[in-house]
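Field reference: sequence -> structure
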Amino acid sequence: MPTAVAARYMFVSGMAALVYEVLWVRDLGYLFGGSAQALSAVVAAFLAGLALGAFVAGRRVQPGPRLLWRYAQLELAIALFAPLAPWLIAGLDRALLDAWWPWLIERELATPVRFLVTFLLLLPATACMGATLPLLCTAFAGGGEKSGALIGRLYGWNTLGGVAGCLLAGFVLVEQVGLWKSRLVAAAFNVALALLAWRRDRAQARAAAGGAMGGAAAGPASGSAAARPPWREAPIDRAPWLAWPCWAGALVATSALSIVLEFGWTRLMALGVGGTTYAFSIVLALYLAGLGLGALVAAALARRGASSLRLLIGSQLLLALLLLALHPFIDDLVAGVGGALYDATARAEAAMPGARARLALLLGGVLVGVPSLLLGIAFPALSELRVAATGELGRGIGASYLLSTAGGVAASLATHFWLLPALGLERTLFFASLAVGVVAALLIALARGGAGRGTGGGARRIALAAGVLVAVAAGGFAVQQRGRWDPRAIYGGVGLYGPRALAPERQLLEVRDGASCSVAVFAQGAERSLAVNGKVDATSRGDMGTQLLLAWLPQLLARESKETFVLGYGAGVTAAAASRYGGRVTCAEIEEEVLAVSHHFADVNRAAHADPNIALIADDGRALLRRAPVRYDVITTEPSNPWLAGMAGLFTVEFYELCRERLAPGGVLCQWVQLYWSSPEDYQAIFATLGSVFPHVAIWKTTSGDTLMLGAMEPLALDPAELAQRAAARPWLAPSLAGSSASLAAQLAPMALLAGNDARAFADAGPRLIRDDVPFLEFSAARHMQANSVDAILARLYAERRTPLYQQEALQAALPANEVAVLLREVAAGLLTYDQASLAEPLLAEAHAREPTLERLPFWRWLSATKRGDAAEAARRLAELEQRAPALLIQVAEEHGRRRDFAAAEAALERLEAKAGSSPASEFQRGRLLELQGKKSDAVARYERALRLDSRMAPAREGLRRLREGR
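Structure field:
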C-alpha cells in the first residue's frame, strides 16, 4: 500500500490528538487547578496513556490482513471516549475526591491521585491514540521502503498534524466554538479516518479475494513469499548499531533533553513577548513543526541509505554546536525582539496583534524552530535501530515510544520542580546544551560494528568521543567566559515596557524561576515592584491603594469578616491588610517563588509570610476554593491581566458561581480588574458575567488604571454611620488609605464609579458572558494587550451613570460641611472629565454654596459651563477664576489643549504669565501643547526649560523621555 495514504491518516490523527490534548489540559485545569503540579499530572497521564498504547500494540500487532479495519476501530474508540473523558473525570472527582481531599492533602497524595484518576479515565482514548503508529507502520510496510524511512515519514506527518491541531485549537476552536464543540470537531476527524480506513480495508479484502481465486495454481512458493514480513523485502543497514541498554539510555536521554529545552524555550517566549495563549500556541507549534520536519528529513536520508546511528550522532553534534553558539546571545535576542515589539506597538496600536505574532515567530523561529528540527531526527533514527536489531517493526516502535515518553515525563517533572527552581532558566538551558554534546560523544563511544563484523575500531571511536567531549567542554568554557545573561533583558519585560525596563536606575534585587513562572523583584528609587514573567503585578507604592482596598472595601461592606479568602498573594499587602482588619485569612498563591520573594516587601506587607492569622497555601486558588471546608465572609481575587494564559478562568460564570457558593450570608466578592491594556467590550463582558451570578454589583475606581468589581447577594451600600463605627474601632484605617484626616466615608464615596441601578443596567447590557466552555476573554484580551484603553472604558462607565452621587443624602447628613464640599467637588470632577456635565452641575452648585473658596472649584465650574455649551456662563466663570485663582489658568490651558484649541490654550497661558510670570508649570504646559501640534523640537526645548526651573519636575522628564523614544 502507498505510504502517502498512511501519512495522510497520521496527519489527521495527530491533528485530532493535539486538539484533544489542548482541550483536556483546559478542562482538567478547571477541575484540578492550573498549578504546575496539577497540570504536570494531567500531561503525564496523557503521555503515559499514549506510551502504554504504543507499547502494547507494538507487541501484539503482526503483519496480516484487516490491519486497516483494526485501525478504523481505534479511531472509532477515540471518537467515542475522548470527548467524554473530562465529564467522567469530573464525575469521579465530585463523587470521591471531594470527600477524601483533606485526607489526601494531609498525606501529600493529591498529585499522585490526580495522575491516577486522569490516567485511568483517559486511558481508553490515549491508548488507542498511541497504538495508531505501530499499527499503521506494520500495515503499510512492504512497499519497498526501508523501515527507518517508513517510521520517520509516518511519525513526521503525525507530528506535523499535531502542529495543525495546536494552531486550530489555539487560534480558532477554543475561542470561536468552545471546548465541548471542539471535542466534537476532533471526534469528527476520528470518525472520518475510521470510515476512510474501513473503505480501503474492504477494497483490499475484495482485491485479495479476487487475486487468490485467480492465482490458486501459483503453488506454495507464492504463499511462502507472502508470509515473509514485508519490511524484510527492503535492505536493513545493521552497521553500526547499539546494544539494548545503550539504545534505551539514548532514547530516554534524547527525549528528556528535548523536553527540557522545550520548557526553557517556552519560558523565554513568555518573558520576551508576553505570556499570552497565542505565544504558548506559537512556541508549541514551532516545536512540533521542528520535530515533524526533522523526522521527515530522517526519512528522506534513510531512503538514500544513510545509517540511522550516524544520522543520530550527526544531528546531536550539530544541535550541541547550535545551542552553545546561540546561548550567549539569547538575552540580546529576547531584548531585541522585545524592543522591536514595544516600538511596533507605539507606531501602530491597531497593528499590535499582527506585529506581536510576527515577532513571536521571529523569536521562536531562532530559539525553537531549527533546534527542534535536529531534535526530531532522534526518535525515528533510534526506532529504526531497534527494528534493525530485532527484525520486528511493531515491537521496535512500541518500545521506542514507551521509553521516549518515559524520558519526556521524567524530564517534565524534573524541569518544573527541580531544574528551573534550583538552577534557574539560564543554567538549565546551558547544561542541557552541554548534555546534548555529551550524549553525542557517548553514542560514538558505545557504537558497535555491524553483525558479523566484530567490534573493530573501538580505539578510534573512543578517541573521537574524547575529542567531542573536549570540544563540548571548550564550547561551554567559551560560553561562560562571555559572561552571564543580563537578567534585566530577560526578566525585565522589555516587550511590555520598552527602554524603561532597562533603565540604569531600575535595579534587579532577586530573580527566581519557579515551576509555573519566573518571578523578579526590581527597585527603582524608593519603589519595589514584583514582575511575573516580565509583567509587573504589584508595587510597594503605586499599587498600594488598590492592594489595601482590595481587602478593606469588601470587609467594610460585608456583614462580618471572620473568614477571608485571598486569591493571589502578589506583594502580600492585601493578605496583610485583611489580617489587620480582623479574622482569619486564607491566601492561595499558585507559584511558591512569589512567596519566597515576599521579604522584599516586608515594610508594606507587615511580614505577612510570618503572620499566624494568615494561612499561605501554594496552590491554584480556584481549585483550593472549590474544596474549601469553610464559607468565607469575604473573597478577594487579584488576578493579573486576563490576556495572560490561564488567567481568564478567574472571570467566568462558573468561577463566580463557585465564589457565590463559598460565601457566607452577607458575604462580598471583590475582584481587581485592570482598565489598562484591555478593551471596553472585554471589560463590560467581565462585569456582565459577574452580574449574571450576583444580583448586587458595583465598580469602584482605585487608581488611574485599576478598578474593583464587587458582587454580593445583598445590597452593597456604604452606611456612613456604620463606617464611622468600624473606623473608630480601627483608628489606623482611614489614615492608612489616604494619609489624611478625612473620614472614611468621605474618602471612599468618590471612588464609586457605578453602583445600585446604574451598575445593574451596565451589567445587563453586557455583550456576552464568559464561560469555562467558551473562554473567549483570554483570546480577545490578548489581541488588545498594550492598548490605550483607560479613557475609552471610563467613558463607557460614566455614560451609564444616572446618579450624580450615590447615597448623597446620607453622606451630606453624616459628614462635616467642609468634607461634603470636597466630596461634591471630587465627584463632579470625575463626571466632567467624561462629559457628564448635566450630572456634575448640581454637585458643583451645592459645593459652591457650602464653600465658595474651595480649591480648584472655580476651574470645575468653568469647565461645567463650557461642556454644557453655555458660552456666557463660561465666560463669567472664567473671569471669576482669573480673578480669584489665576494659577488655575494652567488647567484651563490644559483643557483647551485636550480639545486641540491651541489658540485658546496659548491665550490662557499668556494671561497667567502676565499676572505671575513664567513658571515650571507654564513652561511644561507650553511644551505639551507644542508636542500635541507635532512640534517636537520646540516641545523638547520647553520641557528642558521647565526642568531648569525645577529639576524635580517628573512630567517634564517623562515628556522628554517620551519624545526621545518616539512615543
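Note: Residues 217-239, 450-456 have pLDDT under 50 and may be disordered.
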